[in-house]
Specification:
This protein has ten helices and 19 strands. The protein is an alpha+beta fold. The strands form eight sheets. Strands 12-3-14-13 form a four-stranded mixed β-sheet. A three-stranded antiparallel β-sheet has the order 15-18-19, covered by helices on one side. It has a two-stranded antiparallel ribbon with strand order 1-2. The longest helix is centred in the first third of the chain and has 15 residues.
């Protein structure tokens, strides 16, 4: 095991291989508050990549309803239970310690617990060959990708092994809250699938950090499926090899033959199809320490590091995922802290009382097809102000300005220009009732 630095944990951790970092890292931010659960992203990915034999139950992109939904079913509960048991055996706690953030090295504090790489020494799965703590889902757990969508298990009613009510005439609803969690492969900085593969068939591309599987080297041992805590490596029973999200890398390379945009990187299929405009994708520069280079003109850097409004999913796993989420404002904070770490309160406060910069960047979500590398804000007039209440109970004043934000692609060309206040168009009387 090598010692590598994980900035999401705020400390060094154990990993089977020495650290190697790409020139740029594929990353994205998903705004949960905007998602309407339409599954357009899911079907865009499905119709592009997983429509062949053996891929019928394979969904590289999925949207699941939390807290009860999951694909495969209960994936997060099961790995969290395994981690909890490992900590119990060692009399350790899965807790975070507050520390001072130094140049993006510990924005959420320091995680004092064990990761999926460190805990495997104390809590082996039934098959004790893996270098990563994990489990292999049963086939039935992949069968219902949208199980409990908008609903919860009915209490006191007889259910089958998949959690469906056997006899009922009503649709059970969530009693307190629910939200949609959008998931693709996180293209982690320290992928668990890569660490576990005995064939070394999994690798990260040096140019963009996309995690891929060499189909010729793969022998279908499913160690990657067992190891990935997010369960985004999937076995194909027809081809006998594992497949996964490839981040639509032809688009990242600017080589998608169906679109002519001067060869600049464009958004993935799931991003470009998003109806709710919840997604913003980027390619962020990395330094030799595995940290994001400071870049105040990169919208993703501002969201993740400067404002810390976007958080990683289960950072305690230790894989350093590169898909980030703006947490939902209405869900219980304790549940969100378990899922996104200790930065939840700050992130929600930032979203509830956005700065001019944040409010402008939020307009860029899904506003163009090209990947943005830079942005610029042109100040506009003040629209209004109002009082808001933060999570601490303190009052703050939200000021909204009609600023214009401009996005630039890889070659520095302007590709989008939007304003905070959406323009209003009045239909002319000659076409008043036309569609």
């Amino acid at each position: 095991m090598a010692d590598v630095f994980n900035w999401q944990l705020g400390r060094n951790m154990k990993y089977p291989y020495d650290a190697k970092y790409p020139q740029r890292q594929f990353a994205a931010v998903f705004n949960i508050n905007r998602c309407i659960g339409c599954q357009t992203c899911t079907m865009a990915c499905k119709s592009t990549w997983t429509f062949s034999r053996g891929q019928e139950y394979m969904w590289w992109n999925n949207v699941e309803t939390k807290p009860y939904g999951g694909y495969p079913q209960f994936w997060d509960v099961k790995i969290l239970n395994l981690l909890h048991e490992a900590h119990q055996h060692q009399n350790k706690a899965m807790r975070w310690k507050k520390t001072k953030n130094q140049e993006g090295k510990s924005p959420y504090g320091e995680y004092e617990g064990m990761t999926v790489f460190e805990s495997v020494e104390y809590e082996h799965p039934e098959n004790a060959q893996s270098r990563v703590l994990g489990y292999l889902p049963q086939d039935s757990e992949w069968a219902k990708p949208n199980i409990h969508e908008d609903t919860s298990p009915a209490h006191g009613l007889e259910t089958d092994r998949l959690g469906f009510v056997k006899k009922t005439v009503r649709l059970p609803e969530h009693e307190s809250f629910f939200f949609y969690l959008q998931r693709i492969c996180n293209h982690c900085t320290y992928p668990a699938c890569l660490a576990a593969c005995p064939r070394k068939a999994i690798y990260k591309r040096p140019e963009d950090g996309v995690v891929l599987i060499d189909q010729e080297r793969c022998r279908g041992y499913r160690k990657c499926v067992e190891a990935c805590p997010y369960k985004k490596a999937m076995y194909n029973g027809q081809t006998k090899v594992t497949e996964k999200c490839i981040a639509c890398y032809p688009r990242l390379e600017g080589k998608d033959a169906s679109i002519t945009l001067d060869g600049v990187p464009i958004e993935t299929r799931c991003m470009s199809a998003c109806v709710g405009k919840i997604r913003l994708q980027g390619l962020v520069e990395m330094n030799d320490e595995g940290l994001w280079k400071q870049d105040a003109e990169n919208p993703l850097y501002v969201l993740v590091h400067k404002l810390q409004v976007a958080l990683p999913l289960y950072p305690e796993f230790g894989t350093e995922p590169n898909i980030y989420y703006i947490p939902p404002r209405w869900a219980p904070r304790s549940y969100l802290r378990q899922m996104f770490g200790p930065g939840v309160d700050r992130a929600i406060d930032q979203y509830a009382n956005p700065t001019r910069e944040l409010l402008a960047i939020l307009q860029l979500f899904r506003a163009q097809r090209e990947i943005l590398f830079k942005f610029q804000i042109q100040n506009g007039p003040k629209l209004f102000d109002r009082e808001v209440t933060l999570s601490s109970g303190k009052k703050a004043v939200l000021e909204v300005y009609d600023d214009t934000v401009i996005g630039y692609n890889k070659v520095g060309k302007e590709c989008v220009r939007v304003s905070v206040q959406e323009p209003v168009y009045e239909r002319p009387k000659s076409h008043f009732n036309s569609i």
